């Protein structure tokens, strides 16, 4: 069964450094998402992406975040200048259709900011 | 404010002991309500989408129902392999997604 893959599984970065989290969505899916989950808290929506542009974003997704689909298979989340509070599990998801269609999640990247 | 609340936080069941998980939501306009299963160290795994009050969906031992204020995930005769965290989420008409904190289910053989 096709799956969403995320790399790396764990990323350790110094505060203030830039980090890029990578995702390969399911190949025929058209909508892509990033979520984060701070330890012990809810999964939080960050951004949705379609047709090479952001569809929706939450209040969390401020100017330090950006997303990109650099080629036909990868979907990336960049955090420009990391803060301690960016430490979390980041999940990528994809769906065939929009909004209320089932989303398929990767197993996440655990980001640790030192 | 749109939000999702799940209860209980944790549930321990004997194998074969049926029960229900609750998801209460407040939303300006609902586009869809989702149930996911999450195993430790894994991403959420899609179970169901419900779109309107009165809708029900079933898959093996699981049945999801939806009213205008809450959704239930009924687990019939659970097995140890059903042990996981069950997440409820919704999307509103502004295309914003909200998750609950989940119910951690343990099924004891």
Question: Could you explain the architecture of this structure?
Answer:
The complex is a heterodimer of chains A (114) and B (109). Chain A has strands at 5-7, 10-13, 19-24, 31-37, 43-50, 53-57, 65-68, 75-79, 88-95, 104-105, 109-113. Chain A has 114 residues and is mainly beta. In chain A, strands 2, 4, 5, 6, 9, 10 and 11 form a 7-stranded mixed sheet that branches. Chain A has a 4-stranded antiparallel sheet with strand order 1-3-8-7, with no helix packed on it. The mean pLDDT of chain A is 94. Helix content of chain B is 0%, strand content 61%. Chain B contains no helices and 11 strands. In chain B, strands 2, 4, 5, 9, 10 and 11 form a 6-stranded mixed sheet that branches. In chain B, strands 1-3-8-7-6 form a 5-stranded antiparallel sheet, with no helix packed on it. In chain B, a hairpin with a 3-residue loop joins strand 7 (62-66) and strand 8. Chain B is globular and about 45 Å long. The interface between A and B is medium-sized, with 25 and 23 residues.
Describe the SSE topology.
The complex is a heterodimer of chains A (114) and B (109).
Chain A: E1 5-7, E2 10-13, E3 19-24, E4 31-37, E5 43-50, E6 53-57, E7 65-68, E8 75-79, E9 88-95, E10 104-105, E11 109-113
Parallel strand pairs in A: 2-11
Antiparallel strand pairs in A: 1-3, 3-8, 4-5, 4-9, 5-6, 7-8, 9-10, 9-11
Chain B: E1 3-7, E2 10-14, E3 19-26, E4 30-38, E5 45-50, E6 56-59, E7 62-66, E8 70-75, E9 84-92, E10 97-99, E11 103-108
Q: Helix-strand pattern of chain B, N to C?
A: EEEEEEEEEEE
Helicity range of chain B = under 10%
Biggest beta sheet summary of chain A? 7 strands, mixed
Strand content of chain A: over 45%
Structural class given helices, strands, pairing of chain A? Answer: mainly beta
Form type of chain A:
globular
* Oligomerization state: heterodimer
The overall pLDDT of chain B, averaged over residues, is 95
- Residue runs with pLDDT of under 50 for 5 or more positions of chain A: none
β-strand percent of chain B reads over 45%
Rg of chain A to the nearest angstrom?
13 Å
Record field, number of beta strands of chain A: 11
């Amino acid at each position: 069964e096709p799956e969403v893959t995320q790399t790396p599984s764990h990323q350790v970065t110094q505060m203030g450094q830039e980090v890029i989290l990578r995702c390969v969505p399911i190949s025929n899916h058209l909508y892509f998402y990033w979520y984060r989950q701070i330890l012990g808290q809810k999964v939080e929506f960050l951004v949705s992406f379609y047709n090479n542009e952001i569809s929706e974003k939450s209040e969390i997704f401020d100017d330090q975040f950006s997303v990109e689909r650099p080629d036909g298979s990868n979907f990336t989340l960049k955090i420009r200048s990391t803060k301690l509070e960016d430490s979390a599990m980041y999940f990528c998801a994809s769906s065939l259709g929009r909004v209320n269609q089932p989303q398929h999640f990767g197993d996440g990247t655990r980001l640790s900011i030192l | 404010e749109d939000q999702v609340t799940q209860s209980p936080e944790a549930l321990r069941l004997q194998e074969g002991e049926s029960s229900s998980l609750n998801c209460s939501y407040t939303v300006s306009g609902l586009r869809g309500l989702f149930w996911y299963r999450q195993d430790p160290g894994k991403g959420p795994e899609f179970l169901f989408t419900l779109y309107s009050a009165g809708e029900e969906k079933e898959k093996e031992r699981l049945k999801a129902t939806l009213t205008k204020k809450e959704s239930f995930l009924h687990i019939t005769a659970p097995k140890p392999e059903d042990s996981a965290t069950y997440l409820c989420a919704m999307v509103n008409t502004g295309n914003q997604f909200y998750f609950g904190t989940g119910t951690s289910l343990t099924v004891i053989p």
